């Protein structure tokens, strides 16, 4: 949080350098709209976050928050599919294994492209943590 932050003022966050930076920011923003989750996030230590304990709190967020997270995940899956298609088009090799390409994206559960589940939050946290370790 920025020094001298004024309520309602937009704080610019530095780019994380992750190819899924925008998705990460949107997920955090949506999760922080849920009062219960925001309180848990503020009181959690780094080990609770990394271990996946915080991810289990996702089951307690409001329906509106879950619906928005589901939509964000669908958008991210569509973005990743577009990247894969662009890669395929550039290579022009019809023998590409789509599932193998999707497995490269460790920040979400590609086997369930429609709903954002605790596993997705856990995978997102672990991907960010491993990137920065």
From TrEMBL:
<keyword id="KW-0597">Phosphoprotein</keyword>
<dbReference type="Pfam" id="PF25434">
    <property type="entry name" value="NUCB1_N"/>
</dbReference>
<keyword id="KW-0963">Cytoplasm</keyword>
<dbReference type="InterPro" id="IPR040250">
    <property type="entry name" value="Nucleobindin"/>
</dbReference>
<dbReference type="GO" id="GO:0070062">
    <property type="term" value="C:extracellular exosome"/>
</dbReference>
<protein>
    <submittedName>
        <fullName>NUCB2 protein</fullName>
    </submittedName>
</protein>
<dbReference type="GO" id="GO:0016020">
    <property type="term" value="C:membrane"/>
</dbReference>
<keyword id="KW-0964">Secreted</keyword>
<keyword id="KW-0472">Membrane</keyword>
<dbReference type="GO" id="GO:0005794">
    <property type="term" value="C:Golgi apparatus"/>
</dbReference>
<keyword id="KW-0677">Repeat</keyword>
<dbReference type="GO" id="GO:0005793">
    <property type="term" value="C:endoplasmic reticulum-Golgi intermediate compartment"/>
</dbReference>
<dbReference type="InterPro" id="IPR057576">
    <property type="entry name" value="NUCB1_N"/>
</dbReference>
<keyword id="KW-0333">Golgi apparatus</keyword>
<keyword id="KW-0732">Signal</keyword>
<feature type="domain" description="NUCB1-like N-terminal">
    <location>
        <begin position="6"/>
        <end position="128"/>
    </location>
</feature>
<dbReference type="GO" id="GO:0005509">
    <property type="term" value="F:calcium ion binding"/>
</dbReference>
């Amino acid at each position: 949080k920025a020094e001298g932050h004024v309520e309602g003022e937009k704080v610019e966050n530095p780019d994380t350098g992750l190819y899924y930076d925008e998705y990460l920011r949107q997920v955090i923003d949506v999760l922080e709209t849920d009062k219960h989750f925001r309180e848990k996030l503020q009181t959690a230590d780094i080990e609770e976050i990394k271990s996946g304990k915080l991810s289990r709190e996702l089951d307690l967020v409001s329906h509106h928050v879950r619906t928005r997270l589901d939509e964000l995940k669908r958008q991210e899956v569509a973005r990743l599919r577009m990247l894969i298609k662009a890669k395929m088009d550039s290579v022009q090799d019809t023998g590409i294994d789509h599932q193998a390409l999707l497995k490269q994206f460790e920040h979400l559960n590609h086997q369930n492209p429609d709903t954002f589940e605790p596993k997705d939050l856990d995978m997102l946290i672990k991907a960010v943590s491993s990137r920065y370790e």
